[in-house]
Amino acid sequence: MRSSNPVFSRRGFSRDNGYAGFNAAPQAGGPAVGTQGNPYAQGAANPYAQNPYAQQDLQQGAPPQAPVTTGRMTMDDVVMRSAMTLGTVTVGAILAWALLPVTSTSFGLAIGSALIAFVLAMVQSFKRKASPALILGYAAFEGVFLGVISEMYNSRWSGAPFQAVLGTMAVSGATLLIYKAGWIRVTARYARIGMAIAIAFILVTAVNLLLVVFGVAEDGGLRSMGPLGAIVGIIAIILGAFFLTLDFKQIEDGIAYGAPREEAWLAAFGLTMTLVWIYVEMLRLVAIFSGDD
Q1: DSSP summary character for residue 26
Q2: What confidence tens digit (pLDDT) does each residue in 57-104 have?
Q3: What is the reported pTM?
Q4: How far apart are CA 239 and CA 286, in angstroms?
Q5: Are the C-beta atoms of 264 and 73 separated by less than 8 Å?
Q6: How far apart are CA 152 and CA 158, in angstroms?
Q7: How much is the pLDDT for 129?
Q8: Residues 6+ apart with CB under 8 A from 28
Q9: CA torsion sign, 276 to 278 to 282 to 285?
Q10: Could you give phi then psi for residue 72, rounded to 5 degrees?
Q11: Residues with Cβ within 8 Å of residue 87, at least 6 apart in sequence
């Protein structure tokens, strides 16, 4: 199973990359990886077979671990890289907000920064290995884009960016809590249904954008600042939470099955992209509910 995130979908934590992914993930309450009661030791299909990082753990009759000394990815690695990436986004946004006035020129600069960030993201997505320079470069340009549009929203709806940040934190925290509590089980069926909805949403919004550009749909169409736009925004935020659950599962499995430490950069990259998605949608939603103040 692959994540919806383009980073994970191209270079995710999966067995065909040399270490286990979703399909090989242990389920809650499943058998321990030991000698007794171990179906793999009794001749069953072994999901560790293609995982060089887990082979030693399996032979020793212990669950796969990721100690720092072996060069495997740990949660601390993911947290540290995520803090660096999100910190770069934040610094870029603050500088753009402080140094760029709300003008048509700054809006053009924001669009240009978004395009550069998109290109860097796509380049990294198709690379075989994580490139910290590309990831931090993406974060910096994404930060400039977010800083400019946040200032624009704030100039019309005072306090909207702050509320959007709080909303993003709330959605992310709630999603993590629900995931860790086991209320959501990330299975192949769950991912297929979610991805079908996500693809349909993206296609519909892309068609809507074309209709708006050619003047067929007025006032933004489905992405208007009215009730319909609010409904679409809520759906987009729910999809963002769905992407987070896939990312959490990928990271959890990558750590459990000994993904190399450098993969923590990809984890941070994927999480940043998802959080940016949620923030932008939350910003629009706050503006809609604030009205035309």
Answers
A1: P
A2: 444 444 554 444 468 999 999 999 999 999 999 999 999 999 988 887
A3: 0.77
A4: 17
A5: yes
A6: 10
A7: 87
A8: 182
A9: positive
A10: -90, 160
A11: none
